[in-house]
């Protein structure tokens, strides 16, 4: 098991900070940071969390730092569908319902779908049953040929966007299971050619169902200053129509037509 000093040095290197950079940000001496990293000084729990905060260490990994130093974990991890987070779950459910008729869903740190609104259901018609067994992974659902990939007109751009987002996430979290998903589905192919849509303010996902194109862009919402690991690791993905025709799809009989396609 790595010591707390080794773990802090690991995160400092990931953030590409010198000991002096971290010391200035945390308002401590560079010598103290050095002593902590080399194990010559035993930091308090508050000092560990102060350094972790400046290093933007995820809550799950902050618990690991505390345990390595002999302290109790500070952050709980309670399931979103459990009895401990009913107010949060209800608030998320209201957000999802309020976004209808447009699609919205909640994903965890590994891009598994945790909650969704009814507008998502129509997109799952025709998807291979094994891709819909919980936990449904959003990346696999979107890129698998038996999922939504055949309907994505700009599949290369969507894959590139996902690659960028998840690579950025991995730089922050270093999650091994997400790394496996990235390597399986998003690792760059030497022969792959990406043609970014430079004229767009945002790059939409362009679906084609039954000869009709549907253009959507997304926004991501996270919890501010969470103190629970589950809340620290979930995000709400909300999808909006990128043009009037796509908006009409959701506000008229378009969703029904999709289900019949």
Automatic annotation (TrEMBL):
Organism of derivation: Nonomuraea terrae
GO molecular function: DNA binding
Domain HTH cro/C1-type: 8-62
Annotated Pfam families: HTH_31, MLTR_LBD
Entry-linked SMART domains: HTH_XRE
PROSITE patterns per the UniProt record, alphabetical: HTH_CROC1
InterPro entries: Cro/C1-type_HTH (IPR001387), Lambda_DNA-bd_dom_sf (IPR010982), MLTR_LBD (IPR041413)
Protein name: Helix-turn-helix domain-containing protein
């Amino acid at each position: 098991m790595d010591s707390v000093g080794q773990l802090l040095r690991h995160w400092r290197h990931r953030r590409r900070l010198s000991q002096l950079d971290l010391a200035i940000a945390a308002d401590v001496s560079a010598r103290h940071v050095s002593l902590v990293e080399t194990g010559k000084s035993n930091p308090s729990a508050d000092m560990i969390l102060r350094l972790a905060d400046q290093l933007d260490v995820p809550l799950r990994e902050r618990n690991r730092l505390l345990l390595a130093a002999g302290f109790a974990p500070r952050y709980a991890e309670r399931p979103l569908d459990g009895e401990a987070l009913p107010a949060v779950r209800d608030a998320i459910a209201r957000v999802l319902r309020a976004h209808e008729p447009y699609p919205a869903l909640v994903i965890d740190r590994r891009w598994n779908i945790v909650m969704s609104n009814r507008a998502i259901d129509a997109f799952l018609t025709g998807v291979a049953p094994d891709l819909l067994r919980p936990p449904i992974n959003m990346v696999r659902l979107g890129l698998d040929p038996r999922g939504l990939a055949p309907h994505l007109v700009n599949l290369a751009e969507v894959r590139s966007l996902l690659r960028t987002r998840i690579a950025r996430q991995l730089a922050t979290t270093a999650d091994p299971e997400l790394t496996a998903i990235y390597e399986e589905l998003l690792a760059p192919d030497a022969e792959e050619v990406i043609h970014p849509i430079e004229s767009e303010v945002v790059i939409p996902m362009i679906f084609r169902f039954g000869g009709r194109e549907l253009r959507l862009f997304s926004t991501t919402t996270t919890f501010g200053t969470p103190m629970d690991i589950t809340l620290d690791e979930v995000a709400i993905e909300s999808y909006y129509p990128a043009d009037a025709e796509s908006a009409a799809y959701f506000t008229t009989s378009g969703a029904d037509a999709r289900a019949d396609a």
